[in-house]
Amino acid sequence: MGTHKLFTTTFIDKQRNSMLHLAGMLEPSKKISGAALQMQRELQWFKEVEKVVQPSYEEIKNKDGKIPREVFTEEHKDLVGKGEKWMKDTASSCATVAALVVTVVFAAAFTVPGGNNSEQGIPIYLKETSFMIFAVSDALGLFSSSTSLLMFLGILTSRYSEEDFLKALPMRLSIGLITLFFSIASMLVAFTAAFHLVLFHRVNGSQFQLA
Fold first, then answer.
1. pLDDT for 39-80, tens place per residue?
2. φ, ψ for residue 116 (rounded to 5)?
3. Which of residues 41, 75, 109 is at a domain's end?
4. pTM for the full predicted model
């Protein structure tokens, strides 16, 4: 097993391509949707192969006079461009949604259900459980949507170098999407609490008048 591994990691073909040169070549893939995610997978594969070959093989040149990293960069030039476009399109769409959620929850914070007490200036239903649910979920929605918006803006202003596709961009995209979904869920909870609070008191008020 050790001999086989040594042979594989030190193998050089007729074009003087080492195992690392071959790992740097682009492999057509239909399994992963999104050019940016495919670029991440390609980088992960190249890094893993880089770990098992001898350090000196990173500087070996093939017949074209290129080291493995240069082969990787040349082979993935188009994929980097497609990945940048995919990331920007996704981030732009999600940033629009996040900005809309920020606007809605921010406005809701100053338009409390039931209004304020004219004398003291505090919310009328301040002691109600539904009001506390509304306040907390609205605050969480504002925080998470703002975080999401910042993540997507970070993606749009990124340098889009090869290494960015390995961790930085996927991490920002993941955080942005998670916080965006959370902000939408918080907004729905706030709406439900406000609706229940207003409707509950209106129904009770109507029943009191009828009685």
1. 898 888 888 888 877 777 778 887 888 888 888 888 889 989
2. -110, 155
3. 75
4. 0.78
